[in-house]
Amino acid sequence: MTTLESHLTSLNVDKGLVSLIRVLMDASQGVSRLLRSACVKKMETANAFGDEQLSIDVESDALIFDLLRESKQVSHAASEEQPELRLLSPDGEFSVVFDPLDGSSIVDCNWTVGSIFGVYRGKSILGKSGRDQVMAAISVYGPRTAFIVAIPQKKLVLEASFFPQLNQWLLTNTFLNGISRVCKSFSPANLRSTADLPGYVRLMEEWSSQKRLTLRYTGGMVPDIAGILIKGNGIFCSPVSQTACAKLRLVFECAPVALIVETAGGSALTGSSDFEKVLDRIIRSLDDRVGIICGSSDEVDHAVHVITSLASYLHMYLDTL
Ligand code: F6P
Fold first, then answer.
1. Picking from 154-168, 237-251, 284-298, 304-318, which range would have the lowest pLDDT averaged per residue?
2. For a tag site, which of 141, 204, 237, 279 has the least CB within 10 Å?
């Protein structure tokens, strides 16, 4: 087995990116250690978005900021916990955005959670789109600690796992077959939107009874997306509606996930009225939120078709009342 870094070097991946990947893996190892040793306590504080904070959110956030600063490679960084771009190293080549711990609502249950990273070249992010990311990664804190990274320029999606007995990150998956168009499992998030979206109700019925897909939903986007990559198919669906607004952030969650899914051959559309590609959505603010429907491309297209056609049918019907 080889290390992720030597594999990347053998593929002539840019040296700066390889050493930033090392920093992100060190950070993930640190968060994994915190998760194994720290108690999960509610804090009296909230982040700038007003979300309740847990001690582990704050500690993971500080740990990642510290390592990014020490690396001197990162000019600016922002996190879901501290959502303004902070200057770290004026000469840094990259800007990094991250969600230190995605799945705060399930971490106290001791379920698998993760971190999400998006990396841009240069000092700014606003006005760019997710397609400008040079790399994106998710870290999965489950029975093993895994790090899945996508480098679109090289059409690469790779997984490394941390082996504590060797103190090394070894390459454990190259996802050679990518995400197939055909889908065998579904992850239905933001189910509250079924109140306004008859199409989402229809899809649930179709997926479970007619197509007999398998339900694979953890309540954490990172393990759900990792599951789609590892099984090579699946759909993650988080549409939004009038009364079930988007809570996922474009910059910290959806754009990095979309980059990983598209690089692996899947597709990722916003789960809102325009259903454009998540990667084409221009970043206007670090608080931009979107729905997302991503994974096996045929099923993503079908889901959008069912949601939009039944929504317009419903509107036509309501207009006649
Ligand atoms: O922070 C967002 C998140 O925890 C995602 O990781 C997850 O997919 C989603 O919330 C779960 O949302 P819901 O409660 O709507 O299923």
1. 304-318
2. 204
DSSP states of 185-213: EEEE--GGGGGT-HHHHHHHHIIIIIS-P
C-alpha distance across the termini of the chain, in Å: 66
The greatest distance separating any two alpha carbons of the chain, rounded to the nearest whole angstrom, comes to: 68
State how far the Cα of 253 lies from the Cα of 102, in Å rounded to an integer.
Answer: 8
Give the full edge-to-edge strand order of the sheet including 292-295.
214-215, 185-188, 235-238, 292-295, 267-269
β-pair partners for 133: 120
The least confident of 153-157, 267-271, 306-310 is 306-310
251 CA → ligand 1 middle, Å? 15
Q: Is the CB of 266 under 6 A from ligand 1?
A: no
DSSP result, 101-162: EE-HHHHTTT--EEEEEEEEESS--TT-BGGGEEEEEEEEESSSEEEEEEEGGGTEEEEEEE
Cβ atoms of 194 and 200 within 8 Å: the answer is yes
**Which positions ≥6 away from 150 have C-beta within 8 Å?**
135, 136, 137, 156, 157, 259, 260, 263, 264
Is the CB of 273 within 6 Å of ligand 1? no
Q: Which residue has the tokens 């454990």?
A: 172
- What pLDDT does residue 321 have? 45
Residue 116, ligand 1, Cβ within 6 A: no
Residue 51 in contact with ligand 1 by CB distance below 6 A? no
Q: Backbone phi, then psi, for 275, in 5-degree steps?
A: 50, 40
Which residues are within 8 A (CB) of 243 and not within 5 positions of it... i.e. 6 or more apart? 192, 193, 195, 196
- In this prediction, residue 44 carries a pLDDT of 63
Q: Is the CB of 52 under 6 A from ligand 1?
A: no
